[in-house]
Amino acid sequence: MGQSITARAHTNIALIKYWGKQNPELIIPYNSSLSMTLDHFYTDTTVRFSTDLTADQISFNGAIADTKTSTQMSQFLDLIRKQAHLPLFAAVETINHVPNAAGLASSASGYAALAAAGSRAAGLELNDRDLSRLARRGSGSATRSIYGGFVEWQRGTNDLDSYAVPVQETVDWDIQMIAIVLNDRQKAIASRAGMANTVATSPYYPAWVETAQAAIPAMKAAIVKKDINLVGQLAEQSAMQMHATTLSAVPPFTYFEPETLQAIKVVQTLRQQGVSCYYTMDAGPNVKVICTSQETPQILAALAPYFSPEQLLVAKPGPGVSYR
After folding, report:
1. Long-range CB contacts for residues 185-193, cutoff 8 Å, separation at least 24
2. Same structural domain for residues 127 and 251?
3. Has keyword Lipid biosynthesis (predicted)?
4. Which pLDDT band holds residue 106 (cuts at 50, 70, 90)?
5. pTM, whole model, 2 decimals?
């Protein structure tokens, strides 16, 4: 029987977005991205390789994983088996403390945790950079969840130089997010399909790559200055520029829902009243509000008429991968 290893990885929200792959197989992005790891949302994954198994056994939130999920995770485990020269199947138990596939980057924490637990269970001792490279092969955003705090995924050009690096792992200033969970159902258009369609058909996509890449040094400078207003402005611009590419795709599509626009309107109104708050969105309807802890009560009060308390989740900067 092999050793059982459990790893925890937290999800992250990109402030400068990743949208589009120049190499879909290796998940090499067209542009670099920069995120904040969150403490509230995480995945715990336990992996054990065993001579007793005749196939991978994968459970997800206490139930046997569906065929699509099992296939994707087994293919990822194949990467670990190949690297470790280990011809054994694995038992995998994953508990996801993130609304699945609803724009809250559940795949980021999921594949970061699987990479960490799986590689160590297979006898590999990977450094953070190599772990980030491995996690990227499961989900692009997972490459950033290896680290805590603010993290940059350097786009690179190949499997060796596309990985994440920490920008500020210990966040010692007042910044957090309110996640407004509008919809925890499976997305109608998966991120991968949406990206591929946008890259192939949007006439604005080259401009997106150029502006996203240029925003990275500006965001890093804002983080160093601990300037929440500049961080928020840059994040809001990046989110809306990304979503503009989906509206210009053929056929056009959007992840917005009516409640999305309502949440954005509340944030804009608060800002007109002098509150430092900004919105961002990934590939899903949910809105995340960038703000300070000091102003969070006022923001929650303004959102309360439109959303239930269960829909409003406050998250602070979170840690990188750990082992339980």
Report:
1. 185/102, 186/100, 186/101, 186/102, 187/101, 187/102, 187/103, 187/255, 187/283, 187/284, 189/253, 189/255, 189/283, 190/101, 191/107, 191/282, 191/283, 192/24
2. no
3. yes
4. confident
5. 0.95
